[in-house]
Description:
With 338 residues, this protein is α/β, with parallel strands linked by helices. It folds into two domains: 7-154 and 190-250, Spore Coat Polysaccharide Biosynthesis Protein SpsA, Chain A; 270-333. Helices cover 40% and strands 20% of the residues. The chain is built from ten helices and 13 strands. The strands form two sheets. Strands 1, 2, 3, 4, 5, 6, 7, 8, 10, 12 and 13 form an eleven-stranded mixed β-sheet that branches. Helix 5 (162-170) packs across helix 9 (270-309) and helix 9 (270-309) packs across helix 10 (320-333). This is Glycosyltransferase. One of its GO terms (molecular function) is transferase activity.
Amino acid sequence: MCPDTPARLGATPARGSSLAVIIVNYGTAELTVAGIRSVLDRHHGGRRVEMHVVDNASPGDDAAVLARHHAAEGWGARVTLWLEPVNHGFGRGNNLVIDALLARPDAPDHVFLLNPDAALENEALAILADRLDATPSAAVAGAGISLPSGQPVTAAFRFPSARAAFAQATNFGPITRLFDTRLVPLPPDHPDGPVDWVAGAAVMFRLSVLRRTGGFDPDFFLYFEEVELMHRIRAAGHQVLYVPGARVRHAEGAATGVKDDGGPRRRHPSYWYDSWRHYHVKTAGRGGALRAALGWMAGAVLNVPLARLRGQSPAAPKGFFRDFPRHAVRAIRARPPG
């Protein structure tokens, strides 16, 4: 095997598979193993399910841990390991498998993406697949998500906008209520039905639609890639469904270190801002991206004195007033090359 060729353990399953599960791991091997087991331990309504686990050149011995479990637990052809020499990020890591599935004559009907820090709590795959099979207009179905404590969290959303950015950055009750119908996150108890987009931690796509619309945009490394993909799918005329009856447990932020848990403010990595910029430019153009940037900046500025009056820390990420202009605003304003 050439040194730059990814190692793959396991074989393509026999014809007749209708579901493929993809987990992209980076530094969370044991959590990934738990997620794999949660899939293998269920019957999925009698469907045949294949699994693909992409290790994104994790630090430490993640690849060895996954290979050891593959052998010791007898996963065999049910689980294919993609041991990658570089970190592709989330979208490009999933695209490796999606492209390979699309090239097969026996491509499955649906592909389910599961975060490496997530696990099935019920027959979620069967529930989501049944829903897509029964709803020809739908191309995406997302599961309900809860924390390890059992507390449900938001897993259905509206698309981002300048007004939503301003209201959420201001973090002030009267303004939040004024823009209530514009806010991105929907309530954790949002009912079953069509939404703008669903959490990428546990989401099923109709593979035939990905064949027509394309998979994840490779410009994204991490964050916003699933939002942009579902924006593209919605623009093509398909529905995105939130199906809270499908349940998934998610140790939020374990795989990325970026989460909103009410604790001390964290600094967002530069790629988070890059992805924010990519999303807004791709879906609303440079003008729309600038409006969203100005909305977020104005709300963050207004939030500072309001937070002080309430004895709170500012709502913006740590280092926001330096990082956001440098990684987002300047790049939006810059003229494209040529």
